[in-house]
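Let us practice reading a record.
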Amino acid sequence: MKRLSVRNLLPALTIALLSTVPLCGNTIARAAESAPLTTARDTATLITDTDSLSTGQTFHAALRLNLKPGWHSYWRNAGDAGDAPTLDLRLTGAATAAGKDILWSVPRRLPEGALMSYGYTGDVILPVALTPKSGNGSTATLTAHAEWLVCAEVCVPESGDFQLALKAGTSASSAEAPLISAALNARPRTAPFTAHIAPDGALTLHGQIPDKIRDAWFLPDTPGLIKQAAPQPLTQAPDSLTLKLALLDGYKPGSDLSGVVVLKDSSGQENGFSISAKATATPAVQPASVSSSWLSLFLLAILGGLILNLMPCVFPVLAMKALALSRADNPRAMRRSALAYTAGVLVTFSALGLIVLAFRQSGIQAAWGAQFQSPAFVAGICWLLFAVGLGMTDAAGFGPVSAGQSLLSRSRGLAADFLTGLLAVLIATPCTAPFMGAALAGALAAPPLPALGIFLGLGLGLASPYLLLAALPGVARLFPRPGPWMVILRQALAFPVFGTCVWLAWVLVSQTGNSGILILGSGCLVIGLALWLGGMSRADLRPAPRLILRLIALLLLLIPLATLPALQETDAGTTESTHGAGSEPWSAARLETLRHEGRPVLVDMTAAWCITCLVNERMVLNTPRIRDAFRKRNIVWLRGDWTRRNPEISTFLTARNRDGVPLYVYYPPHGSEVILPQILTAEIVLKLTDTETKNH
């Protein structure tokens, strides 16, 4: 076979060696269906839609693969991994013919992590049309050699030889004819519209577009032209429909693009159409409107970054930074400190954004704030904030804690100001502000340079209060004169930092179970001991004992880092709070089932590390008033928990131009989905469901 997924190669070779024996044989069977070739994965036969044949009258023969649950085979374009089946037919005897062009049904999309394949599951029929010519004798023999690949967790190449005896005479339908007829009816139809592909990847359909299209996707005839796992955002106009494709270098600008476009209407019915999109010389969207859109997203990004200053996980850090700026010796020192802090913010925002964009360009699913899906990152940030909190309370004063105090309050050097900006961004990313969602989605859909500008806008918004404070030195005079009150305030602000540590500990438990909290608590204990020893080293000691204490403290600080690889995600980490009272776990299959049943559904994409999500749940969704309303209206609440990595949820988010949580999508019994605001109120939810109730 030509194309196998690398991750499946070794198991495939092993199983393939074991699977060749059962696939040998060429027993001649009764007309219309050959003797079966059976393995643990499937049963293969050769079937025809006629029991007898007539010269000049076209009939169909097909390879039938009855796949076991969990296994799939492939379409003519297998996608990012896999290989298309082949079928070589020969008719000899009373009639002669040959053929190998499979008449392909519209395939399913089969996501496999960051890859996308196209294929079939269940009972697969792969027909070929044959038109017999006159031969010799009264009986014709149909022989076939087939090769196909079946995959589940491993991929196994299979092959077989088949024979059928067909009588010459008047053509008569066979018992298998309905199977082949259904496969032929499932082929893509001739499109009643024209299609064009723009240099920016915009695939536009013009003409008789079916009504009430809810979703659409394009399947190219050949691989290597588009990123097949990338989202294909859909926009509609009265007489056109546009899908935004992510083109690869394999696509030559100015070339036509052929394949199948699948249109899914509001009832869930899917229809495939064969298209050959003609290349156009200009982008589908004019540069002026694009620039205007990017400017709007840049302004939204600044506003979203500004709001981040008020998030509870960020505010203690930034409040102490404001006090440090207000105590600077002169206006010049204030400006330098604010600029260093801003540089730290901008560099970190840009670095995180570029990492996410690089993953997306490589076809790897990545999202903003996804670092909090890593238990090691959560534990590391918790330990850092714990050390910072100890420094703010003056519990110790060694090395990192002294730096931590500088980060937050004492402003000892530009490096400390820069690191403050870095720390603020890292702990701010899970706090999704109301205006960040659209900006982030726009950044990840835009070309690299505009996307980088949007990330810089987020950074400017976060740093803007301190830039303003440095630009207007007179504002600092509004603060009370330095005195004991500043020490007390600094120490008091340590407790919200410790509160953030408690929240991070809860996030870690939801990811790793009880073993994670043991590692986290032990790390805090060792860090506290190391900082206490470091504080002692600042006492009036001789150089040798002071050096020994500091070395011991440094070695102790390495112990928590060594335990980070032991933090592994586990299903045991799922807690009652991650599901929500009265909710069901989300899955694409469950959503599709409920939609077919005509049930109203609220999809809630959330995460334990998302502050906005938790507030919406506690204040709105998980209240008696809303739960009672859901019960009366028979609304199913599906919660997708993104605390840990979940490619299926990531796909759901990106398909709706979102790159983070929360995301709330309401599906009425009839009609298209409605995306709710990121900040919920009971009135928003009740008004939406009441409107649907009145309409039906």
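A brief commentary: The chain has four domains: 6-185, 189-279, 288-566, 576-695.
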